[in-house]
Amino acid sequence: MNGCPAAGMKVTLQRVDGTTAQTLKTLTLNQDGRNDGGPLLDAASMAVGRYRLLFEVAPYFRARGVALPEPAFIDTVALDFGIADAAGHYHVPLLVSPWAYSTYRGS
């Protein structure tokens, strides 16, 4: 919506096993829309499996002064993805507005 990185957006990374989700990390995106500590999973933590990113979209837009309905149309975006190659590189960007979002496997 703003054409800029989502500085200040809260994100949670979870590992999903069946119906159970274990929180691995919670962070706030920096001015570049990334984690200050680098990759969310380092080489030692990377494992084949299912994961979930939870992007706190509504609080982010409200903090930017965007008037949203209550409840917000999009509150939290839950993005489920799989890691098939633990040695691979995975970049999971989210393009989002208060009304729509898209994602892809980045480079």
CATH class: Mainly Beta
CATH homologous superfamily - what is it? Transthyretin/hydroxyisourate hydrolase domain
Estimated share of beta-strand residues? 35-45%
- The side-by-side strand order for the widest beta sheet comes to 2-1-3-4
Keywords for this entry:
single chain; mainly beta; Immunoglobulin-like; four-stranded antiparallel sheet; two-stranded antiparallel sheet; about 5% helix
Compact description:
By secondary structure, the protein is mainly β. The chain has one helix at 57-63; strands at residues 10-17, 20-28, 49-56, 76-83, 94-96, 101-103.
Task: Describe it.
The protein is mainly beta. The protein has one domain (10-103): Sandwich (Immunoglobulin-like), CATH 2.60.40.180. It has one helix at 57-63; strands spanning 10-17, 20-28, 49-56, 76-83, 94-96, 101-103. Strand 1 and strand 2 (20-28) form a beta hairpin.
Element layout with pairings:
Layout: E1 10-17, E2 20-28, E3 49-56, H1 57-63, E4 76-83, E5 94-96, E6 101-103
Antiparallel strand pairs: 1-2, 1-3, 3-4, 5-6
